[in-house]
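Hello support,

Our group uses your service weekly, and this is the first time we've seen a run hang past the timeout. The protein is diacylglycerol O-acyltransferase. I'm not sure whether the cause is the sequence or the server load. Input pasted verbatim:
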Amino acid sequence: MDSPEKFIEDYVSGLSTTTIDPSKPLWDVHLLNLRTAEAAAVGVLRMHHSLGDGTSLMSLLLASILNLHDPESLPTVPVKKRRSDF
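Update from on-call engineer: The timeout came from a worker crash unrelated to the input. Re-ran successfully.
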């Protein structure tokens, strides 16, 4: 092969023009056993945008409920304490 980098570029470009079958998992893993100047082989992970959207929403949720006094603690959801009339 004359240019593995060009082949990989064309391969990934071709992946971006096809759709992911919704009856299968919403991701593809493509392993290309091609030696390039920077790698012994190449892996391409293609995911449906909804997986990224869900991850972004979960990150936003977790970031909004972190404890500022102890950032290493697990996130908790604030609960309003009820006033007791004893």
